[in-house]
Design brief:
about 20% strand; alpha+beta; Endonuclease I-creI; 2 domains
């Protein structure tokens, strides 16, 4: 199945607009729209699949262990990326960034950036995207009023493969120590503005709760602790709809530990030793060639 159906971009994509000084431009600034997806280098095959699917863009090294798939061509953004996400809308609040991104592309198509008024209009839109304006732009354009940012709403998650793609990017399967031995836990963390989305995931999977860390006021987490829910709902779901990234390896280890807990091996010294070895090799402890 294509990455199109996995909606992987809801988890890891970025719609951004760079503005850099350029003396060659009439208004002194150059506007660069960019669509990108950044992953750990171990997921290079997933990025290559994405590149093949869209038929455009390039993959670059970004930081020691990161790769980024990037589309910067104005023509390709206008003819490929925007039509794709118009046809297959994002479900997270990232859709608001996409809509603002699309608005900037339309303004660039109409050459409004050639005037100071047009430049200010574009910057007011950028101020409402992602993390807003950089310090440099706030100093250069101190009187900019932010454009209105829409709030994304939807009835329900319509397809299991959307959730698979989202978990591929944002989910975590891990083993957590408890007083007696270990628990298996699944979680998805998001910005607090996507709490509605996480509540829809609870309804869709029929399990889980939402937690709000005291130390991180802007974070909300969907988490499944109950072993019966893990074993009877989470594991069967991801067996039927397999993960596509290297996170699949963490899921396999997660399932192995769940099987050991199911037969009470986690209550034996030998079982605890096996689980501990599996745990240390998962997620950040996994070694990739």
């Amino acid at each position: 199945m294509s990455l199109l159906n996995y909606r992987f971009a809801d988890a890891e994509s970025s719609f951004s607009i760079r503005i850099i000084k350029d003396k060659r431009r009439k208004v002194g600034w150059r506007i660069l729209p960019i669509f990108s997806i950044e992953l750990h280098e171990r997921d290079v095959l997933l990025l290559k699949r994405l590149q093949t699917f869209f038929g455009i863009g390039n993959i670059y090294k970004h930081m020691p262990n990161k790769l980024v798939y990037c589309v910067q061509s104005f023509d390709e953004l206008s003819k490929v990326i925007i039509p794709h996400f118009d046809k297959y809308p994002l479900l997270t609040q990232k859709r608001s960034d996409f809509l603002l991104f699309k608005l900037v592309i339309n303004l660039l198509n109409n050459k409004v950036q050639a005037s100071i008024e047009g430049l200010h209009k574009i910057i007011s839109i950028i101020a409402s995207m992602n993390k807003g304006l950089s310090k440099e732009l706030k100093v250069a354009f101190p009187n900019i009023i932010r454009s209105t940012r829409s709030v994304v709403d939807f009835d329900k998650i319509g397809h299991p493969n959307w959730l698979v793609g989202f978990v591929d990017g944002e989910g975590c399967f891990y083993v957590k120590p408890n007083k007696l031995s270990f628990d298996v836990v699944m979680s998805i963390s998001q910005h607090s503005r996507d709490e509605l989305l996480l509540s829809k995931i609870i309804s869709y999977l029929g399990c889980g709760i939402i937690e709000k860390p005291i130390t991180r006021s802007n974070q909300t987490t969907f988490v499944v602790y109950k072993f019966n829910d893990i074993y009877e709902k989470i594991i069967p779901f991801f067996f039927n709809y397999p993960l596509q990234s290297v996170k699949y390896l963490d899921f396999k280890d997660f399932c192995e530990v769940a099987d050991l807990i199911k037969v009470k091996s986690h209550l034996t010294l030998e079982g605890i030793k096996i689980i501990r070895e599996i745990k240390f090799g998962m997620n950040k402890g996994r070694k990739h060639k």
